[in-house]
Structures are given as C-alpha cells and as structure tokens.
Amino acid sequence: MKQPLFTKYVVPFFQWYSLMILIAITIDYFLHRYQLILVGRYLGIIGTLVVISSFVYSLRKRKLINSGSPKTLLELHEYVSWIGSIMLIVHAGIHFNAFLPWLAIVMLLITVASGLIGKFLLKKANESLREKRQELINTGLRIEDVDKQLFFDSVTVDLMKKWRVVHMPITLLLAILTLMHIITIVMFSK
C-alpha cells in the first residue's frame, strides 16, 4: 500500500526541522539550568566551523577538490550542517539584546528549511517520477508514450532541481550576516 504524499514527502521535513529546534532548546535549557551559559558562547565558534566544514561537498561539486564521493559528501553536508545549526541556535539562545545576531539566526533557520526542502522534496519527487515511469513501462507502453504521459511531471521535477538557485543566495546572505556578526563581536568585545 502506498503512503499518502503528505506522509511520504512533507512529514519528514517537519520532523527534521522540529527535531533540530527541540534539541537546541533542550541543550539551551540544560546549559542554563546547570549554569553553563558560557558554553553556549563557544558553541557559536564551533557551530560556525562545523557548518563551514560541510562545504567540502560544494568544493567537490565545483571540482575544486577531487577526492571524496559526491553522494557521501552530500550526505555529510546535510547532517553536518544540521548539527552545526543546532549549535548555532543554542549559541543564539533566547536573548533579545542585539538585532544582527537574530537576523543571522532567522537566515540560518530559512537556510536549513531550504536545505531540507531540497533533501526531502526534491529527492522524493525524483523517486516518484522514476516509480511512475517504471510502472508505465511495466504496463507495456512504448517509451515515447511514457515520456509524453510524464512530460509535466518531468518538467516539474526539473523546475524543482532549480531549488539551488534559491538555496545558494540564502546561504550567501547567511554567510554575510554571520561575518558581520563576527566582525561586530571582535570590534566591540571587551
């Protein structure tokens, strides 16, 4: 029996996103409860380095480095970025004393959402298209007829692949805001 589309495609997205926020809130709670608030400050540095390390995938994809399997590096990028994002959310905490860090965190949340959309929805759309294609071929249709029947689905998946056109500028804006935050911390720290 096939799962409903909502269960198959949308629920995993919300589960990962909610889990990230829940873990961050839990860690922040325990840091405050046990008077370890200073740890949260250092998680900003560690989280930033962890997220930066996840861009090995981007370097490999653009052929700036030659080692590593692109598929493995993509999975590493997804999970390492997610873990680094948890650290950065804990670092931000629930403090309303500065606008720039909050703007950076909002961009981080948008960037993670964008990445999860790519991870779950694009991946699942590709799988669904392959399954439909195979089902139609199994019914005995000619390849040309299958391609005609799946034309709009194929166009939709191709458009979804352009998701990176949105994800990359969001990530760049996050990087700029993060850099501005770091510069202001260095300039105004005592």
The number of distinct helices, counting runs of at least 4 residues, comes to 8
Please identify the structural class as seen in this structure: mainly alpha
Q: What is the beta-strand fraction?
A: under 5%
The amount of helix comes to: over 70%
Counting structural domains, the number is 2
**Net shape:** elongated
Note the quaternary state here.
Answer: single chain
What does this structure look like?
- This protein has helices spanning 5-33, 37-53, 56-61, 70-92, 99-138, 143-149, 151-161, 164-188.
- The chain is elongated.
- The termini are far apart.
- The protein has 190 residues and is mainly α.
- The mean pLDDT is 87.
Name the descriptors.
190 residues; mainly alpha; 8 helices; elongated
Short description:
The chain has 190 residues and is an all-alpha fold. 83% of the residues lie in helices and 0% in strands. 18% of the residues are buried.
Topology readout:
Layout (H helix, E strand, L loop, with lengths): L4 H29 L3 H17 L2 H6 L8 H23 L6 H40 L4 H7 L1 H11 L2 H25 L2
Helix pairs in contact: 1-4, 1-5, 2-4, 4-5, 5-7, 5-8, 6-7
